[in-house]
Amino acid sequence: MSGRPLALVVEDSADQTALLRRYLDREGFDVFAAADAEAAIAAFSDIDPVVAVLDLLLPGISGQECAGLVRERFPDCFLVISSVLDATDYPPADAALPKPIVGADMHEILRRVQR
């Protein structure tokens, strides 16, 4: 372990995952990335994320359902929803990060995360 806080990213776009990984690394986080909710859920026993960034439009289990499961399993995790959908359609979360993602927006959100 590196001693850096862990961020969970659930995103089915490889380009978006790479972008989020770069932003989160720059902000001092290690990243566990999952291409779908099922892969994220399968890793729950091995991870303890401080922040989770979830896409809503995922194959299989929806991002909305995944957000609820992350909340249940990691109640102190700072939950960020990132989607192309209208932010008014996002499930309850600690922050909204509408796509396209901008580094400055991610920076502002991560300033609020307790590490």
Automatic annotation (TrEMBL):
<dbReference type="InterPro" id="IPR050595">
    <property type="entry name" value="Bact_response_regulator"/>
</dbReference>
<keyword id="KW-0597">Phosphoprotein</keyword>
<protein>
    <submittedName>
        <fullName>Response regulator receiver domain-containing protein</fullName>
    </submittedName>
</protein>
<dbReference type="InterPro" id="IPR001789">
    <property type="entry name" value="Sig_transdc_resp-reg_receiver"/>
</dbReference>
<dbReference type="InterPro" id="IPR011006">
    <property type="entry name" value="CheY-like_superfamily"/>
</dbReference>
<dbReference type="Pfam" id="PF00072">
    <property type="entry name" value="Response_reg"/>
</dbReference>
<feature type="modified residue" description="4-aspartylphosphate">
    <location>
        <position position="55"/>
    </location>
</feature>
<dbReference type="GO" id="GO:0000160">
    <property type="term" value="P:phosphorelay signal transduction system"/>
</dbReference>
<feature type="domain" description="Response regulatory">
    <location>
        <begin position="6"/>
        <end position="114"/>
    </location>
</feature>
